[in-house]
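Students often ask what a holo structure prediction actually looks like on paper. The answer is less mysterious than it sounds. You provide the chain, you provide the ligand, and the output is a string of discrete structure tokens encoding the 3D arrangement of the protein together with L-homoserine.
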Amino acid sequence: MAFSRAEAFAPATVANLGVGFDILGLALQGIGDRAIVEFRDDPEIQITDIQGDGGKLPREPEQNVASVSARAFLDHIGEKRGLSIQLFKGLPLASGLGSSAASAVVAVIALNQLVGEPFTREELLPFCLEGEALVSGYHADNVAPCLLGGIVLVAGITVDAIRPLPVPADFHLALVTPDFPVPTNDARAILPSNVPLKALIHQTGKVAQLVDALHRSDLESLGAAMEDDHVVEPARVCLVPLLAEVRAAAKRAGAYSVFIGGAGPTLCALCDTAATAESVAAEMKQIYSEARMDSVARHTQVDLRGATVLDIG
Ligand code: HSE
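The corresponding structure tokens follow.
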């Protein structure tokens, strides 16, 4: 059966999980982006509408993450028809919640459905990466969990390097997103280009501890590993004001740990119940309120489904 229009949803994601820079990520329940893609009679890809971005995202097809990903897909399958894309941004831009990955994934997952699902979700990774690379280079720690859901190990940027990790049942997150953007490219430019061997040993040990803790559902060990970052957080702390204060407040309210979500500025606190996560989120927001900074607080769990097709016709 031939379809001409598909609508999809792609969830927010948190990359790195603290120490796992560029190699770990998870999908979040509740927030994300939506897109409608429709075949056109001409060969162009057009962004016909974007809502929710405050006019900030490029409408030019060669500069927009969604259309660049869609173009990679269409070229790969030799499809000559063009595409109209409507994008509904539920995610704040440059916030550490995987907004660009969601734009890429939501377009590609809808497009895959439109052409009869020739690819598995894992196989869609390269197309999504082409779009993501436009804004922050080739890293798959947002795109992979956005496609697949869950907590994902991204041991490389090839399809066979993506492995799902166990999600402890009592894994809850409190999040606070202060109201200023941190472009991922800026946050990557600030990182050291070389890491001393001692720091490498520490960091790889903590990533291994984190993965082991996930397998044993040991939130205490997990939290300790996540935030014991000797490489990336020290370089980026200047981009996230009040990190120490937010961390202290979250822990007083019962969080195991606080780490920077992706490239920031969202801060994520690991908690073991929804009630704790709710009060931790409120306490983290309070720190920004006292400093007269706007922020959005959320509490949620890991999304296990990944991007979904909402409608096809
Ligand atoms: N791993 C990436 C970074 C995620 O921290 O730069 C950016 O979304």
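Residues 15-16, 21-22, 136, 139, 141-142, 184, 187-188, 262-263 surround L-homoserine (CB under 6 Å).
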